[in-house]
Design goal:
The chain is an alpha/beta fold. The chain has 2 domains: 133 residues, Aspartate/ornithine carbamoyltransferase (Rossmann fold, 3-Layer(aba) Sandwich), CATH 3.40.50; 158 residues, 3-Layer(aba) Sandwich (Rossmann fold). Helices cover 41% and strands 14% of the residues. It contains 12 helices and 9 strands. A 5-stranded parallel sheet has the order 7-6-5-8-9. A 4-stranded parallel sheet has the order 2-1-3-4, sandwiched between helices. α2 links the parallel β1 and β2. It starts with 16 loop residues before the first helix and ends with a helix. The mean pLDDT is 97. Bound molecules: phosphoric acid mono(formamide)ester and norvaline (NVA).
Length: 310
Amino acid sequence: APSIVQEDFLSLKDYSTDEIMDLLNLAIELKKPENKYLPLLKGKVLGMIFEKSSTRTRVSFEAGMLQLGGNAMFLSSQDTQIGRGETIPDTGRVLSGYLDGLMIRTFHQSVVQELADFSSIPVINGLTDDFHPCQVLADLMTVLEHFGTLKGKKMAYIGDGNNMANSLMIGAAKVGMDISVASPAAYAPTAKMVALAKDIAQYTGSKIEITESPEQAVAGSDVVYTDVWASMGQEQETIERLQHFQGFQVNEELVKHANEDYIFMHCLPAHREEEVTTAILEGPHSVIFQEAENRLHAQKAVLVALMGDK
Ligand code: CP
Ligand code: NVA
């Protein structure tokens, strides 16, 4: 078992480099076919609160819990009393009496924090407007599998400076990867998030760069990463965002600036011919389905670390 001292998994910023590497190594162990059904969480139940849609997060957490000998429960905010205004503190205290862990996907990071503050069981962030740590753990696992190392590798993130960019900056900084984020000026990561990543990078030697030039970001990169231009909750901004992100598409022209053996990554779901072309998504450098599968393995590691017998 990894030596994780954390009670929750709310953001990678709370985890040390060693804790993250422990989780990645455990994920790689759990991915081995002979370890697929190890009953490390026999009889334990995870509740999963969703205030936004999901395919990967929901199915990988649910399958992961079953493979570990436990169970998972899908709790749509629509169909629980949360949708009728029952507070997060009350919900957290009630559910702590039934469950062994809680995953939540919601809008504000403060809601995840509040749930963790009031729950006596581990809370896992399944995506907020600010962070997506489960995705980045799977992403780092994918980079590690592909290149055999993380330290010194360079990631280029092209697109919106929100949850994925924030978590990738923090994750990269923690493990000693360099990251260059290219966004239109109005969509750059906030100064607060950049400062947070740079603070971490001081200790690991990572380089964090923010630019408005996709070509500059991609130059010399080992990983080219992108995400949708309009995230969940921003659907009404789709048209204006399509305009503002012109020139930020990942396509054959842009990846000419990457290293020859670069990999293309995307958290998915993808909007083809918007943030990325089909040729790149389906091309020989794309690892998007390995990356998606790794959500399962990385999250099983988190579940075992937080909910397993200590
Ligand atoms: N990447 C990701 O979190 O996908 P879902 O929205 O389908 O869970
Ligand atoms: N930025 C996207 C990620 C989806 C996994 C969103 O928040 O909708």
